[in-house]
Each structure stands twice: as C-alpha cells, then as structure tokens.
C-alpha cells in the first residue's frame, strides 16, 4: 500500500463508480484531495484499474465527478483510489471541502461549526438553488 501524502477525513457518502466492468455503488469512507477509501462488498476492482467516480460533497447537492481515479489498493470489501489529472475547478472544490472537514474534525475545536453555502428549495420540480 503506498504511503499517504495527506491526512484523510472521515466521511460517509454514497458513490457511483464506473469502470471497465460497468457501474457500481459504494460508500466513500474517508477522503482527501488526493484520494479516498471506498467500501463496496465484493467490489470487482484491481490495482491500476481506472474509474470515474460520482459523489456529492457536503457543500452542494449536485455530484462531483472525478474522471481519473486509479485503484491503488484492495481488500475484501474496501479499496483505495488516487485522484489524478483533475480539472482546476474540481481540484479547488475538493481541496476547499477537505480543508473545511479537516478543520471540523480537529479534536482541539470539537465545538466548531462549519459554514457551507446555503440552499433554498425552489417550487418547480423540487430543484435546489443557492440562496
């Protein structure tokens, strides 16, 4: 298993991943700007496999798409991916959310509150929009 370059933050978010064997669902269990751990019972992945990930970060409801994720390790029901070659916009968003989550999980600041952009429910088709 390669050595991590950044601390991970705990997270539990549904993720859809697409690879050479089709599309599957799993759960992102921890996260950093460089990668994440995904839980999926009997995932059909192998080291070096390239995946596209789609999952919602806590700052917005619309999913983030990580187009270049490479499987770096596998276990029975978990695997790790490294994000590579992301667009500047995606990378900036991932880093911002990571820093907010890392700050919130710091033990010294257990009562800290994070402020993320607010959303309001629109009447038409139940879509969300920034308020």
Key structural traits:
1 helix; two-stranded antiparallel sheet; 8 strands; 43% strand; 131 residues
Query: Main sheet: which strands, in order across?
Result: 1-2-3-6-5-4
* Number of helices, where a helix is a run of at least 4 consecutive DSSP H or I residues: 1
Helix content: 10-25%
Main sheet overview = 6 strands, antiparallel, barrel
Secondary structural class: mainly beta
- Taking the alpha carbons of the first and last residues, their distance comes to 43 Å
The total count of strands amounts to 8
What radius of gyration results from the CA coordinates?
16 Å
Mean pLDDT across every amino acid position: 81
Q: Tell me what portion of residues adopts beta-strand conformation.
A: 35-45%
User: Outline, from the CA principal axes?
Assistant: globular
Low-confidence stretches: 119-129
| SSE succession | EEEEEEHEE
Can you describe what's shown?
- The termini are far apart.
- The protein is mainly β and 131 residues long.
- The chain is 13% helix and 43% strand.
- A hairpin with an 8-residue loop joins strand 4 and strand 5.
- It is built from 1 helix and 8 strands.
